[in-house]
Design a protein that fits this description.
The chain has 625 residues and is an alpha/beta fold. Helix content is 41%, strand content 17%. A six-stranded parallel sheet has the order 3-2-1-4-5-6, with helices on both faces. Helix 8 runs parallel beside helix 9. The radius of gyration is 36 Å and the shape is elongated.
């Protein structure tokens, strides 16, 4: 039979439990010890002076004196030796009590400050944006959200990540020193922990962005996003509550699982979006400038607006209804967006116009019509699409998707040549060849950093050049290889007098500034563009439908076409005339490109319809083909 613990053991166990409660328990024991010390010394002095009526002090006054002496560390300088001994004992005890109390208070304050430094307190913000996770994409997200919040007033962004709070604050302050009216709140914790998720007050958030970590495999990154979505959607603290959640996966095969885990969450396919953007920008010079303007909050943005005065009118009639805004589509009552609908589509009472504008305050109906120069409008006929030749330098997991997308756009007889030092590229090219409808695929082994290899390719003869970042290397090394190759390419093209367009894929946005020194036409920073899309959709969930239409080969897309298809080759026409010319071809004009831009890119979106255009060589239009 087990032996029951004795009284002493039980008392010791109870004492240990009270001591383990931290500062509160220790101060309690210290107060008890102080009370006993004061009581014992007071009683002793009272006994010693019991026979001396002249020197006796009232017991309550004596108790007060002993209490003061304990914490002031001072004692009477004269009196009988027995009394002085009692005061001395009390002073020694006071030293112990005061020292212990100061130490405990200091330790308690330090622990509290340490908890605050770690960011473990509850966030009580409302209508704020929550970012769950940490990666290099966070700087783009925060920067864009700060822009978006400028017209909203004071608001907050709460970041929950498994990082030190001071580290996060220092990194963000270094990259984004001015956050304007937006307050940043950092909390240290795991987005996979239900208790930690409650710290950032998800139920009161305007939107939630799930950010996958860097420097992990695609499988691990997507697993993190799926688990976080599952915690938000199925967690007991959040179940049944509407949340506007935006996340992305890197592997298309994981998107269906992420949608199941996230419920109503919007899940973007990062690889698919990147592949589509690379193909579209490779085939049209300066298209990446247009996308950059549409995706960030610094330029023109896409809004949804109800306009009762336009209900019952055809979509084509709305194109000239605004002086400084461009209607580009219709958001139906079912939540589906149609860009560049047929011009005779009637605007319904529950429909909203999808409008490109600098700011929603600029979306006002024009009180007058804009003059159209009929003599300037042409009806040029585009000839059949010619075969295209594309050169892909480098290889990564997106390359197969890029080739599949390219095959959708190009005409019969087109070719794609792959040059890389990765052995898996030739295997993938061989398996893809039977599936391609318009492309002839060829692969060649070679180091794309070798100038002799590049010179042997005769790069100037290709219509499109795509330079990919190797995903088997770390971002710094991969981008360095891209930059080296890009420098060689530009030098070879300049020597041959060619101005071929080059699309370079960068994994780190900071490397884009260096790449611009090579004067390449277009750059696609894949993760940065996905970050911009996530930010836009977090502010307006209906934009998901807009971007789906833009990236779908079967939907409306942005084209940069020769202005001679639409207008006579002379300056001075207003943009209203260009809008009318595009309308007669079933297209929506949203901007133009200046013929001789000088040092800039020359792209102008959403110009004033009343102002004359300079000499332009391209119109930027939305078209279904």
């Amino acid at each position: 039979m087990a032996r029951r613990p004795g009284y002493r053991a039980r008392w010791r166990y109870w004492f240990d439990n009270t001591m383990s409660r931290g500062t509160t328990g220790l101060i309690g024991w210290l107060a008890l010890a102080s009370f006993l010390l004061i009581a014992v010394v007071t009683a002793a002095i009272e006994l010693v002076t019991l026979g001396d009526g002249d020197k006796r002090v009232h017991p309550l006054l004596l108790l007060w004196q002993t209490f003061i002496t304990t914490f002031s560390l001072s004692a009477p300088q004269d009196g009988d030796w027995p009394v002085l001994v009692m005061w001395f004992v009390l002073a020694l005890g006071g030293i112990f009590v005061a020292g212990a109390l100061i130490g405990l208070l200091t330790t308690g304050m330090h622990r509290r400050l340490e908890q605050l430094r770690k960011g473990r307190s509850l966030v009580i913000e409302r209508n704020h944006t929550v970012i769950l996770g940490w990666s290099d994409q966070i700087y783009t997200l925060i920067s864009e959200l700060v822009h978006a919040n400028q017209s909203r007033g004071k608001t907050a962004i709460a970041i929950l990540a498994d990082q030190d709070k001071i580290f996060m604050e220092d990194r963000v302050e270094h990259r984004i020193p001015d956050t304007g009216k937006t307050r940043l709140v950092f909390r240290t914790g795991s987005p996979l922990d239900l208790t930690d998720l409650e710290m950032v007050n998800l139920n009161e958030a305007r939107s939630i962005i799930v950010l996958s970590p860097d420097n992990v495999s695609e499988e691990d990154a997507d697993a993190f996003a799926i688990k976080v979505l599952l915690a938000i959607n199925k967690g007991p603290a959040f179940r049944g509550r509407p949340h506007h959640v935006v996340a992305s996966v890197r592997d298309s095969r994981n998107r269906a699982v992420a949608n199941l885990a996230g419920g109503d969450a919007i899940v973007l396919d990062g690889d698919d979006i990147s592949a589509r953007l690379i193909v579209q920008t490779a085939r049209q010079s300066k298209l990446s400038v247009v996308y950059q303007d549409l995706f960030d909050f610094g330029g023109d943005e896409i809004y949804m607006m109800s306009e009762p005065s336009l209900v019952g009118k055809q979509f084509g009639q709305t194109l000239q209804a605004y002086r400084k805004a461009c209607p580009i589509g219709i958001l139906g009552h079912d939540g589906k967006t149609t860009l560049n609908p047929p011009m005779d589509t009637v605007i319904g009472p529950a429909d909203q116009l999808v409008i490109l504008a600098e700011d929603d305050s600029k979306i006002t109906l024009s009180p007058r019509t804009f003059p159209i120069d009929e003599t300037a409008i042409l009806h040029g006929v585009r000839g059949p699409a010619a075969p295209e030749s594309t050169l892909i330098l480098g290889w990564n997991a997106r390359a197969e998707r890029i080739i599949e997308q390219l095959d959708v756009y190009v005409a019969d007889g087109s070719t794609v040549d792959i040059v890389t030092d990765r052995q898996d590229a030739d295997t993938v090219a061989s398996t893809m060849a039977p599936r391609l409808h318009h492309l002839l695929i060829r692969s060649k082994f070679g180091d794309i950093r070798d100038r002799d290899v590049l010179a042997s390719l005769d790069v100037a003869t290709f219509n499109n050049v795509i330079l990919l970042s190797d995903d088997q290397l770390d971002p710094l090394t991969a981008d360095s290889r891209v930059l080296v190759t890009l420098l060689h390419l530009r030098d070879l093209l300049a020597a041959g007098g060619s101005a071929s367009s080059i699309v370079s894929e960068m994994r780190d946005d900071r490397d884009r500034a260096l790449a611009q020194l090579t004067k390449a036409d277009d750059f696609v920073v894949s993760e940065q563009l996905v970050s911009l899309l996530m930010t836009q959709i977090s502010e307006n969930k209906h934009l998901k439908s807009v971007f789906d239409d833009l990236f779908d080969p079967e939907g409306a897309e942005i084209y940069i076409r020769p202005s001679t298809y639409y207008l006579r080759q002379q300056p001075g026409f207003t943009f209203a005339t260009a809008v009318e010319a595009a309308k007669r071809r079933g297209e929506v004009a949203i901007g133009y490109r200046i013929a001789e831009p000088g040092d800039g890119h020359g792209v102008v979106l959403n110009p004033d319809k009343e102002l004359p255009m300079p000499a332009v060589d391209r119109l930027i239009v939305l078209s279904t083909g």
